[in-house]
Amino acid sequence: MAWLDLDMEIERRMEDFERRLKENRGAIRAQIEQAERRCREAEEVRRRDWEELKGHLATEAEKRQFESESIQRLFATLTDEYVNVVRSAGEDMKREFAEGRAEARAQTEAILKLLDRLPPEGS
């Protein structure tokens, strides 16, 4: 009976892990899309401000330079976002493992206390 309970507990934890993983994928995707949108908007504002300052529309060379700088800024921003996501996931996993260890320790202690209460084998 105890092994069946253990199998059910493992199955429940796996299902819970997969559910949280799916939820987090959506949140991560939304976070990355929001960062991309902020980068595009900031780059458009930057380009317009530059054109106002210079008093003329950007030449093709200047447009390419803006595009190149825009890509570099986008990569830097997305890298920061990915680092934050990975760091957050790592912290969540550490917390989950710590909770699992604490629960396993409590279960082990309960089993040992139960075994201590059993009568000796010869009686």
Largest sheet: none
Global mean pLDDT: 82
Shape: rod-shaped
Radius of gyration: 28 Å
User: How many distinct beta strands?
Assistant: 0
Strand content: under 5%
- In percent, how helical is the residue content? over 70%
pLDDT under 50 segments (min length 5)?
A: none
SS class: mainly alpha
What gap, in angstroms, lies between the N and C termini? Answer: 25 Å
Helix count equals 2
Order of helices and strands: HH
Structural summary, described in words:
It is built from two helices and no strands. With about 120 residues, the protein is mostly helical. The chain has a domain at about 55-115. It starts with a helix and ends in a 6-residue tail after the last helix.
Give a summary of the structure in a few sentences.
By secondary structure, this protein is mostly helical.
Give short descriptive properties of this protein.
123 residues; mainly alpha
Protein topology:
Elements: H1 2-54, H2 60-117
Helix pairs in contact: 1-2
